[in-house]
Every structure is written in structure tokens, then in C-alpha cells.
């Protein structure tokens, strides 16, 4: 599968016809048709219902279209990240309730200002649950209240020490 084929598929969907897509991707209509046929052969499915005019995406074609958009978005994000131009995506973050209410809001605002393409998803739970979720890959990081029971594969470091008062 070639990203040029995926870009052509998206152009056909966006512009409605193979001919209009050809102008956008700077190919001849024949070359656009050949790219789509090659993609269909490689995937072993029919992307377009050619009995309709203009050809319409089949249900499998719609599925491939969504995957193509995701692949190309990831390709662009990867290139931007490697160039250092952009940090993007979604940071899956967990926190105990006290930190979620006190410490994290300001940190998230600062991250959003510095990395506008980075989204944050915050889940509030108990320390043990958050540690298990980081270990299982359901969270990227977590702010927890205790550091017992960490799997060896995880790294942790204290960032705040609060004395206990009686």
C-alpha cells in the first residue's frame, strides 16, 4: 500500500470524481484509475461501485477511506514530531482526586499553551487502579499518592512531598 494511493482515494472522495481528483493529485484520470485498481488488487476488495456515475465508495471502500485518513494523519504527525515541529495526539493521564483538583489544572493549561495540538484526557481514580492502567498501557502516565507496588517496567519519581499533619 502506497500513501500516494491513499491520498488519491481521499481526493476522489473529497472532489467527487476521478477526473477532479486527478487535477488535485496532479495525475491523469487514467493514472488515478490505475492507482485505485492497484490498491483494490492489493487489498482484495472493491473500493468503488463503478455501475454508478460517478462511482461511489462501497461499504468496504468507506472503511478503507477512514483508515487512509488515519494513516495519513499519523504519517504527518510522525513527520512533524520527528522534525520537532509539533507534539500532537492525546495524552492519556490519570490522577488521584487531590492532584486532579489542585495540581493538574494549571499544568494542563500550561501544556495546552505550549503544545496546542496535544489533547489531554484525564481519568481520576485510586492510586492502585491508575498504576495498573499505566502498566497495561491504558494510560500514558499517572499522578498517584503512593509509590508501593510499582511493576519493574514502570518508572516513577516523586515530584511533591507533603508532610502529614495530625
Structural descriptors:
single chain, 166 residues, alpha/beta, three-stranded parallel β-sheet, two-stranded antiparallel ribbon, 7 helices, 5 strands, 52% helix, 13% strand, elongated
Indicate the proportion of strand residues. Answer: 5-15%
Give the low-pLDDT segments. none
Major beta sheet, strand line-up:
4-3-5
What Rg is obtained from the alpha carbons, in whole angstroms? Answer: 24 Å
Q: Look at the structure and give the mean pLDDT.
A: 88
* Helix/strand class: alpha/beta
Q: In one word, what is the shape?
A: elongated
Figure out the total of helices.
Answer: 7
Tell me the major beta sheet: 3 strands, parallel
Q: Roughly how much helix do the residues carry, as a percent range?
A: 40-55%
Cα distance, first to last residue? 65 Å
SSE order, as H and E? Answer: HHHEEHEHHEHE
Quick one: how many beta strands? 5
Amino acid at each position: 500500500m502506497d500513501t500516494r494511493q491513499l491520498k488519491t482515494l481521499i481526493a476522489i472522495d473529497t472532489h467527487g470524481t476521478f477526473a477532479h481528483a486527478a487535477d488535485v493529485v496532479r495525475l491523469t484520470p487514467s493514472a488515478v484509475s490505475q492507482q485505485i485498481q492497484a490498491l483494490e488488487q492489493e487489498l482484495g476488495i472493491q473500493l468503488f461501485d463503478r455501475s454508478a456515475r460517478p462511482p461511489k465508495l462501497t461499504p468496504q471502500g468507506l472503511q478503507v477511506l477512514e483508515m487512509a485518513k488515519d494513516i495519513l494523519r499519523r504519517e504527518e504527525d510522525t513527520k512533524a514530531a520527528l522534525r520537532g515541529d509539533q507534539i500532537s495526539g492525546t495524552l492519556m493521564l490519570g490522577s488521584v482526586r487531590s492532584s486532579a483538583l489542585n495540581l493538574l489544572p494549571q499544568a494542563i493549561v500550561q501544556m495546552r499553551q505550549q503544545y496546542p495540538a496535544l489533547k489531554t484526557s484525564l481519568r481520576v481514580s485510586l492510586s492502585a487502579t491508575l498504576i495498573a492502567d499505566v502498566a497495561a498501557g491504558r494510560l500514558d502516565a499517572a499522578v498517584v499518592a503512593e509509590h508501593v507496588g510499582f511493576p519493574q517496567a514502570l518508572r516513577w519519581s516523586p515530584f511533591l512531598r507533603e508532610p502529614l499533619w495530625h
